[in-house]
Amino acid sequence: MGLVVQKYGGSSVADAEGIKRVAKRIVEAKKNGHQVVAVVSAMGDTTDELIDLAEQVSPIPAGRELDMLLTAGERISMALLAMAIKNLGHSAQSFTGSQAGVITDSVHNKARIIDVTPGRIRDSLDEGNIAIVAGFQGVSQDTKDITTLGRGGSDTTAVALAAALDAEVCEIYTDVDGVFTADPRVVKKARKIDWISFEDMLELAASGSKVLLHRCVEYARRYNIPIHVRSSFSGLQGTWVSSEPIGDKQVEQAIISGVAHDTSEAKITVVGVPDKPGEAASIFRTIADAEINIDMVVQNVSAAATGLTDISFTLPKTEGRKAIDALEKNRAGIGFDSLRYDDQIGKISLVGAGMKTNPGVTADFFTALSDAGVNIELISTSEIRISVVTRADDVPEAVRAVHTAFGLDSDSDEAVVYGGTGR
Predict the structure, then answer these.
(1) CA angle at residue 159 from 68 to 39, to 5 degrees?
(2) From the CB of residue 87, how many other CB atoms can be counted at a distance below 10 Å?
(3) Strand bridging mode 130-134 / 35-40
(4) Would you list the DSSP string of 193-207?
(5) Quick one: how far is CA 101 from the chain centroid?
(6) Alpha-carbon distance 10 to 93, whole Å?
(7) Mean per-residue pLDDT for 22-30?
(8) Do 115 and 88 form a contact (C-beta atoms < 8 A)?
(9) Please, are residues 299 and 311 in contact by the beta-carbon 8 Å criterion?
């Protein structure tokens, strides 16, 4: 039996009963002969509540101090979980991200892991302990300040530790039974996927699927760490995410893996841009210099009479104000007429490696949206993904329509969401 890294989300450790339930699951893995490293998130909505509190004190909290505040949530979880495990008669030691050797860059609130040196974790395991690690946090290599990893940071912590410790598997415990063909909160007949490739999971994650975050899957693919997504509220097998099918999951790659949606983005349209070389570069250099990631981009055909065009792109709503300010500041250099901002949009994505060899997928996708009365504003494609932007209000109906059109609806019971508020 080898080493297993288990990650438990906020809904799994939301209260004392949840923590005791997680402790029993960890002890069970230890009894089965595994060395166990458990990575924990903050309890329930603690992180969101701390952010709300910080914003009440300061409209724009300093990044360093916000990280100091937010990392308290995971430290509470890890200490309580270690206590619960000791109460079951097993030894456990808790570690903060910095104590666990999670080394990051110096960007507060969204730091990236650049190295993991888990010497103290390895020593603790060799002494027979269960190691409990606070997720979502690390320490800056340059400044030695505490940093947080941003959304999905605990998942990334778990996969990074699994890679550094050469673990057999990284188990991600959440409030659903695995990866589904759509968000079961929106599509009640969503079907659980037994196995999905890293590539398809990356596309789903990038398209808005919340069960695993993009950085976590990318890290797992880079170091070839199998991920098992499952629920901490049931004993059911979950979804395996890996480069190749595992065990009895030797099934043919499905044409369509799932439908993802995202309502956390906004759209900016730069109106009246001179249609000449270098203009798009100036716009997106301005956005890049502001350290803003963009998603979809479309440029309209220029008007023959004016020689001007419009360029639209999507980005996280949280970065909208910063992007508008950066573009306005460089308005003279770029030479556009005006800016339009729209945060009432949603993205629907169809993902599946099989679509590149199956003609008609695109036609069926757009037919399903048309039949549902959904208007399309932007389109983006890759070899294994088609994404469209629509009105935010149309997203739930659009997701359900596409899910049904591609035969993804389950014939069995409705998907179960065990906990969590979705905040």
Answers:
(1) 50
(2) 11
(3) parallel
(4) -SEEEHHHHHHHHHT
(5) 23
(6) 20
(7) 96
(8) no
(9) yes
Q: Which of 301, 381, 317, 396 is nearest to 349 (CA)?
A: 381
Q: What is the pLDDT of residues 308-350, one digit of tens each?
A: 999 999 999 999 999 999 999 999 999 999 999 999 999 999 9
**Residues near 12 by Cβ (< 8 Å), separated by ≥ 6?**
18, 21, 22, 41, 173, 174, 175, 232, 233, 419
> What is the number of other CB atoms lying within 10 angstroms of the CB of residue 313?
23
Q: What is the dihedral angle through the alpha carbons of 272, 274, 277, 278, rounded to the nearest 10 degrees?
A: -60
3-state secondary structure 231-286: ECCCCCCCEEEECCCCCCCCCCCCCCCEEEEECCEEEEEEEEEECCCCHHHHHHHH
What residues have CB less than 8 Å from 224, skipping those under 6 apart? Answer: 242, 243
* CA atoms within 13 A of residue 112's CA, in its CB half-sphere: 5
422 exposed, middle or buried (CB, 10 Å; 0-12, 13-18, 19+)?
A: exposed
Burial environment of residue 421 by CB neighbours within 10 A (0 to 12, 13 to 18, 19 or more): exposed
Q: What is the largest CA-CA distance in the chain?
A: 80
Are 175 and 9 a contacting pair, CB within 8 Å? yes
Q: What is the dihedral of CA 349, 352, 358, 363, to 10 degrees?
A: -10
The CB density around residue 331, as the number of other CB atoms within 10 Å, is 14
Helix H or strand E encompassing 2: none
**Tokens matching residue 321:** 């104000």
Residue length of the chain: 423
Q: Say what the pTM is.
A: 0.87
Per-residue CA distances from 155 to 58, 172, 185, 195, 331 (Å)? 29, 7, 21, 18, 40
No. of helices (H) and no. of strands (E), the chain: 12, 20
The contacts found for 78-84 with CB under 8 angstroms, 24 or more apart, are 78/40, 78/132, 78/133, 78/134, 80/13, 80/16, 80/19, 80/43, 81/8, 81/13, 81/19, 81/22, 81/23, 81/26, 81/38, 81/40, 81/132, 82/132, 84/19, 84/20, 84/22, 84/23
d(CA 211, CA 229): 8
For 392-416, what is the mean pLDDT?
89
The answer to whether the CB of 67 falls within 8 A of the CB of 109 is: yes
